[in-house]
Amino acid sequence: LELLTPGKVLFVGEGEGRNSVFAAERGWYVDALDSSSVAMEKALKLASEKNVKINYQLADVRNYHFEEQKYDLVALIYLHLQESERAELHQKIIRSLRNDGIVLLEAFEKSQINNNTGGPQNTDLLYTLEDIINDFIDLDFVELSKTSVHLAEGSHHNGNTEIIRFIGKQII
């Protein structure tokens, strides 16, 4: 995020706002959405404490209307949806990108199910590299990797985890 020129970013399934506030502090115009009103309240409180503005909407990402060619960056950070729901959402996200827009995705990989370090305990909510390739085939792949990282984010997300990182660029 820090390597990109600030523009308009959308955080899908944003949660408590750490990522969106981080982006706003670096000059991004931030839209965020999540289905949790509790998460939204925490995000807006954090933004206020950090003296930044984020536009946070309470919405179910599966039914959200994504405006076409609106965003320079769309981020999906640990968004857990059923495998059957993801492809359609990912296509909507691709259409919401401006020319040269970027999708940034970080998610738990299917082998994470064997670890006791966080993430969903349902493999249908986890990703494979093939899932990403199939869903984002229309983008230019800047990075696609499966990696093991050490998370230290509280008692439920602590230890080595298996994740997928993806950066894709829209070329129109």
Q: Beta-strand level of the residues, as a percent range?
A: 25-35%
Subunit arrangement of the protein: single chain
* Global geometry: globular
Largest sheet: 7 strands, mixed
For CATH, the homologous superfamily is named as Vaccinia Virus protein VP39
Rg from Cα: 15 Å
Which strand order do you get reading across the main beta sheet?
A: 3-2-1-4-5-7-6
Tally the helices.
4
Tell me the span between the first and last alpha carbons: 22 Å
What is the averaged pLDDT score?
94
Top-tier CATH class = Alpha Beta
Please give the number of β-strands. Answer: 7
Give the SSE string. Answer: EHEHEEHEHEE
Domain unit count: 1
Residue runs with pLDDT of under 50 for 5 or more positions? none
CATH topology: Rossmann fold
Portion of residues in helices?
10-25%
Question: Structural class of the helices, strands and pairings?
Answer: alpha/beta
The second-level CATH architecture is 3-Layer(aba) Sandwich
